Amino acid sequence: MPDFSDGGPRPAAARAAGATAVRLAAVLATAIGTVRSGSMRARTGRPDRSRWTVVIGEGPPGPGRGGPGPEEARRPSPALAALRAVARPVAGAAALVDREPFDEEWFEHRGLRLRYEIHGAGQRVVLLTHGLLLDSQMNRRLAADLARRGNRVVLLDLPGHGRSDKPRHATAHRMDLYASTVVALLDHLGVERAVVGGVSLGANVSLHAAEIAPDRIAGLVVEMPVLEWAVPAAAAAFMPMLVGIRVAAAVLRPVASVVRRLPRTHIGTLDSMVAAAGAEPEEMAAVLHGVITGPVAPVIDARRSMRMPALVIGHQLDAIHPFADAAHLVRALPDARLVRARSIVELRLAPARLTGAIAAFLDEVWTTEPAPPAGHAAAAQRRPGRPAGGGTRTGGGTRTGGGTRTGGTTATRGPAG
Asked: Of 73 and 355, which is predicted with more confidence?
């Protein structure tokens, strides 16, 4: 069985088959019509030979065509009702599949080789980071949606996560050091100011970045911050997890090896969770140890000094991301607004409402943000440090070293790097 542990491209036949299956499922879900029951006797008095009439589209059959009259009872076919019940979630899942291509590149910081993605183009730069033990795949749908609205969205795999280097010592995984990685990536890209944000761990990292480099942060998008009200629940969840990983490492290691060979679904959040389950136990333990023992978030006085506009997203019914933390953060930040999510997964599974709020916030930020100096645009687009081969372009497939770019199909554009 091929090894997909590096997150590299799947064989073209497998990608094409997967994409075809998803499209067929979506078409099937859309095409299922309304099923109406016909009476055993039409208005003419003659028996109706067909008990069930399948109608594709809208509107009942007209008189004289064997269809039921308006006064006759109508009910769904049990078989097709069951099929519709299955097709709806399949169509919903198909809508979550990553289809947009993006650039995949690398840079070095503190001796670590770190991976990032670029969605879209332009000077409106948004840099997003992911949750604990997850990776940038969880933000791909949001990145694609924001890129279509004129933003250049950068997704960073923090150290110990995704396909970035994974040091196995806790000191590399402090949140304030993660924040320095965010600033280093802005330097690498030649970006003077950007909106920075993230979810959970990424939210706290963004706050640390605003503390250490406030002049580089044009705005904050903070989803589900983990602050004072979350500390007891986070300790109760992560400390046993850390101990369990260390104790059961010998059992977890072969399980992770099997998980790494599972094919990708191209549903970003799902693939991100599978990738987390495939991490080596020692790597997971180092991340948890460093995050638990390092500073969690800037102190209250530092938060009150953050003058950049901020959008804070919080939700209820989650002890590790309590709504109280989001509300208290909004009260501490001088220029912040609060958006209440309906659930912990709304932005990942039904993103339209929250994506609209984020896009509107970004429009406000860029409206008030001064234009970059002359020559800065060209420098930013050159992206210093870009690999000579052009990196990798991915979106349901890969363009390696200027080679192939795929979005369900593959086209060779040059020699593989």
From this structure: 355
Residue 46's domain spans which residues? 13-95
**Contact predicate 27/3, CB 8 Å:** no
Burial class (CB in 10 A: 0-12, 13-18, 19+), 367: exposed
Alpha-carbon separation of residue 358 from 197, 223, 351, 365 (angstroms): 11, 10, 10, 11
Tokens for 300, please give them: 């209250």
Q: Round to whole Å and give the CA distance between 200 and 322.
A: 11
Which tokens go with 50? 């067909």
Q: Is residue 228 part of a domain?
A: yes
Model confidence, pTM: 0.73
Element (H, E) at 51: none
**Last residue of a domain, which of 78, 95, 112?**
95
Is there a single domain that holds both residue 68 and residue 120? no
173-224 pLDDT, tens per residue?
999 999 999 999 999 999 999 999 999 999 999 999 999 999 999 999 999 9
Q: What is the rounded distance in angstroms from the CA atom of residue 383 to the CA atom of residue 275? A: 28
Contacts of 301 (CB under 8 A, 6+ apart): none
On whether both 89 and 106 belong to a single domain, the answer is no
Token pair 């490492």 is at which residue?
249
Are 58 and 205 part of one and the same domain?
no
Which residue in 259, 236, 248, 237 sits closest to 281, CA to CA? 248
Query: Residue 385 in 3-state DSSP?
Result: coil
Residue 394 domain-assigned?
no
Angle between helix axes 78-95 and 12-31 (nearest 10 degrees) is 130
Q: Pairing state of beta strands 52-55 and 34-37? A: antiparallel
Tell me the residue type at 209: A
Beta-strand runs (E) in 249-407: 310-314, 336-340, 392-394, 398-400, 404-406
